[in-house]
Prior knowledge:
The protein is an alpha/beta fold. Among the domains are: 115-320, no CATH class; 388-481. It is built from nine helices and 37 strands. It has an 18-stranded parallel sheet that branches. The N and C termini lie far apart (84 Å).
Amino acid sequence: MVEPPGLNDAERRLWSSFPTGGQVVLGEVVPAGPDPDRIVRAEVISQLLLGACPPRTGFVAAVRLSGAYVIGTLDLSGGTVEYELRLTHCRLTETPDLSNAQTRQVRLSECRMPGFDGGGLRADGYLSLSGSHIEGSVRLPRAQIMGGLRLNGTRITASEPAQWALFGGALLVEAGMYAREAEIEGGVRLTGARMNGGIWLEGATLRNPGRLAIDAQNMVVEDAAEFSRATTIGTVRLRNARVNGLLAFSRARLDSADPHRLALHASHMTCDELLLLPAEKIKGPVSLSFSRIAVVMDAQSIWPDELRLNGLTYETLRNVPFQHRLSWVSRDKEFHAQPYEQLATYYRGIGHDDYARKVQLAKLRARRRNLNPIGKAWNGLLDWTVGYGYRPWLAFAWFAALVGLGTAVFSSHRPHSIKPADERPDFHAFVYTLDLLIPIDTFGQQQSYDPQGWSRWIAYALVAAGWILATALIAGVTRVLRPN
C-alpha cells in the first residue's frame, strides 16, 4: 500500500519497516517529553496492525518500535490483529485499548503509560508488560492469554484508592502468569481466574494497606502458586481457591496492616501442599477454615496470634514437633472441637496414640473455659482425678496417696471396736483404709470399728474421696469410650 500523506519522519520509518518486521529505534530510554523526532501517533500503529500496509512476501510483518513518544489512543478494540506488537522504552500518553481484540503476541516492555485495557482480549501468544511503569489500572477481565502473562519487574500504581491496580476477574492464562519482582500499589483482583501454567510472584510487592492486597477467590491454579519472597501489605484472599500443586509463602512477608483484618484468608481452599514459611511472624489473623490441604509445612515461630482452623482437614503435617501443635490448634479465639479431633486423628493415623490422647485431653481442657461454673467445677474434678479418662493412672496415684494417709492416721489413732470380739476381724489400719475408700463393704473392717475424735473426720473424708474417685473414673472412661 502507498504510504499515506502527513506522516512525520519517525512514522515514515515505522511504516516502511513494518512489512519486513524491522526494528525502529528512536531512542534507548523512555522519552521524558514530546521530542518532535520521537513522536508517533497511535493511530498510525493501529492502522498498521489492522492491515493498512500489506506484509512483504518472505517476511513476518510486525510493529517493532523503541523509544517513541506515542500520542493519542492505541485503539485496537474489537479488532483482529495478525501481527506482533512490540513497543519498548516508549511513552504512551493515553491508555492502550485492546478490549475484545484478537491478537498475536503483544509486548509493551519498559514503557510508561497511564493504564492498559485488555478486557476480553484473546491473545494467541503472550502479553508482556514487563518492566513497564503504569500509573493507572491494568484491566484484563475475561481475557484469554494463551502464551502467558508477563509482568516481571512491572510497576503498577492505582490512581485512586478504590481502584484495582490489576483487574483480572475470570482471566484465563494458559502458559502461566509471571510477576516476579513486580511492585503493585493497589489491589489485585483475580477472582475466578484460571492459571493453567501457575502463578509466579516471587519477590513481588503488593501494597493495599487495610484492604485486599490480592483477591483471588475461586481461582484455579495448575502447577504452583508461588508467593515466595513476596511482600503483601493488605489481605491475601484465596477463599475457595484450588491449587493443584504447591502454594508457597517461603520467606514471604504477610502483613494485613490492620489488626482487625485477615493477613491470609484461605478458607474453603483445596491445595496439594501448603508451604507457610514466611521470613517473619505473620502480622494479622490467618484463616484456613474448612480447607482441604494434603500437606501442611509451617513453622511455630511464624504463627500469628490468631489462627482459624475450624473445619481444616489435612493428611500430613511437617516441620513442627508435637509439643507445639497443641498451641497451633488453640489459637482460635472461639473454641471448636474439630481442630483437636483432626489433629488427634492425624497422630492416631501415624501410630502415635499417646499424642492423640494428649490432644483429646487438651480439647476437653479448652472446652472447659466456655462452661458455666458448675460445669467448670465438675470438669476440673475430672481433670484432676483421672485426666478426663485419658490419664487413669491419676486415680490410682490419688488412691495410693489416700491409702498411705489413712494407714498412717489409723495406725496411730486406732478406732475402737463396735462388735464383740468373736464377731469382729482383727484390726489392720491398711485394710481398714481400703474398706473406707472402696464404695462397697469389702473386708468387714468399716462395720466393726469406729474412729474417734478428729480421726473420724479423716474417715469421713476417705469415704467421700472413694466415691468421688470411683465416680470420676467411671465418668472419664465412659467419655473416652463414648466421646459423643
